[in-house]
Amino acid sequence: EEQARISATPAHPESLFALYGIHFLSCLLEHAWHFALPAVIAILHRSFLPVAAENFVSQLVIFVGGPCVGAFMDSMPRPASFNFLSIVQTFSMVVSAAVVVFALRGGAATASTTGLLLKPWFIILMTFGALERLAGLACGVAFERDWVVQLAGSNRSLALANANAILRRVDLVCEIAGPLLFGILLSRYTPVKCICIAAVAMVTSLPLLIYLVHCTYKLSKGVLDRPKTRNWTESKGYQDQSSEEGFRAIKRGWIQYLSQPILPASVAYVLLYFNAVLGPGSLMTSFLTQQGLNPSIIGSFRGMCALMGFVATFVSSAVIGKLGVLKAGLTALVFQAGLLALAVAVYWSTQVKHQAALITFLVLIVVSRLGFWVYDMVDAQVFQTAVPISQANLVGTTEVSLASLAELVMMGVAIVASEVNHFGGLSALSMVAVVGAAAIYWRWLANPSPEQARLF
């Protein structure tokens, strides 16, 4: 009983609460901005090209630059690296906001679909948009993979699980609130005024963010300090050796990933990221804006999608307890694939020309997100069960890289088929990817290997 009490008690509860505050503030601004940017860009150009190109560049930068930023963070003190990345993210948001305001006020002449990519203002927007995404992703990884483990205690499994659940819920609440707040602003004020309000909020929140990081560090009683051997000022020879080891680690990660007995389950998870259209992403936001939908409704749609994720944190445990982890995964995938197939059928049969058809289309997508989030948790538990602890980080980050590559490919397709009338085809491709994920997982479940039987 005493051991269970210790396991459920965080090592540094006060510092952990400060961490939740940082996570809430950074997530709220980030989700609001990721809704605002595609919604406003869609006003500038009636095509998916601007949004798809901006997302394509961002995913490419994340895929290539992620390991480099990770190495930088590992070599710097935790608070200093986080503060630096927060400043970079805020500066990138403000520059992007200034560029968008310039374009909205008539500084960006109407260009052809292909000529838009060569406009200096759009190149600046893509560059700083990618930088903001990379910095934001790095901050999120620092919280979810590093800081929370140190503050909750790596040997306190119940406390760590509870902290992970709270971080997920904070992120999902912000995903609901951020787009909803900006959608309400956009429905009442001009886009220029809304972007200016967002920029002011970013700048004024940065000092508070840095102060909360300082409080978290002070309350942690030194647990966030890195060993002195891991210092940014180490010799160049050591850095060169680290870079060489980094390339070897990437190669080793792919070899270990492809040799895992739960590879089909992971491939199914990656295929879900090909669904870049039938979800609350930038392409859907751009499409709905160009359909003339009220911004507050678009924000509500994204919020409801996030709410499904919040509900899934409670539903998944019940489903897994009743069906078992593997059957729960199949149920989630079939549930999502079936609803998305219905959504695509609604789109193709009506072209969502009437509001009732459009609302039905959106409701089906919202409910399908429950299946996505349940499978997300199933995939995490399958990994925790099957992947050895010594390989967990390497194999896990390799899966994340592959998921990023999947989004990158889909954004490339969206760039080629950038006109609004191609939305139906993009939707069908997204649906087929989810159906493919369900088929791969079903085949793996129907033909269990001895290793699968031993593990599950």
From TrEMBL:
One of its GO terms (molecular function) is iron ion transmembrane transporter activity. It holds the Pfam family FPN1. The chain crosses the membrane at residues 20-44, 56-73, 85-104, 116-143, 194-214, 267-289, 301-320, 326-349, 356-375, 395-416, 423-444. SUPFAM superfamilies: MFS general substrate transporter. CDD domains: MFS_SLC40A1_like (cd17480). GO terms for cellular component: membrane. The keyword Transport applies. It is found in: Membrane. Belongs to the ferroportin (FP) (TC 2.A.100) family. SLC40A subfamily. This is Solute carrier family 40 member. It comes from Selaginella moellendorffii (Spikemoss). The lineage of its organism: Eukaryota, Viridiplantae, Streptophyta, Embryophyta, Tracheophyta.
